[in-house]
Specification:
With 75 residues, the protein is mainly alpha-helical. It is built from three helices and no strands. It is elongated, with a radius of gyration of 15 Å. The mean pLDDT is 83.
Length: 75
Amino acid sequence: MPFSGEVFTPEEVALLGRVFDRTGVPAESRTDREQRALNIIFHYRAGVTDEAELEQLANKDSLARQPPAMESPPD
């Protein structure tokens, strides 16, 4: 993501960091972590400033990137 010139305040960085820390998924790749961070920042810059709402959106984005669970064959 190219630098846009926007500078976040320390409070904003703390909020974005808390959301990031709470929304990881097991065995998440570096690429997925970077994409999650970009998505959180995208939503924040789009006007979503509520921490719980950002967390919900980040979780939704993370779930959308996970491969579907393999089903067990019927007995």
